[in-house]
Amino acid sequence: MEKVYLGTITTTHGIKGELRIKSNFPYKEKAFKIGNHLIIDNKEYEIKTYRVHKNFDMVTLDDFTNINEVLHLVKKPVYLSKQELVLEKNEVLDEELLTYEVLTTSGKRGIIKEIFYASPKNKVMRVKLDKEILVPLNSPMVEIKPDKRQVIIDKMLEM
Fold first, then answer.
1. Quick one: three-class SS letters along 65-120?
2. pLDDT by residue, tens only, the chain of 159 residues
3. Which of 32, 63, 105, 142 is most buried when burial is the number of CB atoms within 10 A of its CB?
4. Is residue 144 part of a domain?
5. What is the pTM assigned to this prediction?
């Protein structure tokens, strides 16, 4: 089963078994749906409730109703089965984007070496053309074509 990393459980919240997850996952509304199954320590847990509190995603799992039942999950990474994550045609996960070919409008070819957050909302791609450049992922000069598995970068960004 192919898994997608969502984030990490940081702590519990309250005494009723609610968990606080720190996540930068871009498609949270699709991942944290009630009824989906989170994978923690290779075991599946069904999401019973979900809400956002400050910068955290809050969930209760299975029929856990007591803080003592979920303490063993604290500090663990959280995954979701890729089959449960239903994305639109134009939505791409960062892991898949790393396999895409990079083309520039001036005809150069390259690859994406890394994708990282420059700030909490801004993702940047490290692209290897004839030299390495940093390209903001949310730039209007970047076009992602999932059907062709390509990223098109305007020649202005490669200077």
1. CCHHHHHHHCCCEEEEECCCCCCCCCCCCHHHHCCCEEEECCCCEEEEEEEEECCC
2. 789 999 999 999 999 999 999 999 999 999 999 999 999 999 999 999 999 999 999 999 998 999 999 999 999 999 999 999 998 888 899 889 999 999 998 888 999 999 998 887 889 999 998 889 999 988 888 999 999 999 999 877 666
3. 32
4. yes
5. 0.83
